[in-house]
Amino acid sequence: MAKNSLKSLMKEMFDENIKFKENLKRLNPRVELARVLIYIRHSARMTQQQVAEAMGTDQPFVSRMESAAGPFPDASSISAYAHACHSGFGLVFVSNNRVIAVSMCTGQHEKVFSEAMALHNIEKYSPV
Question: pTM of the full predicted structure?
Answer without folding.
Answer: 0.70
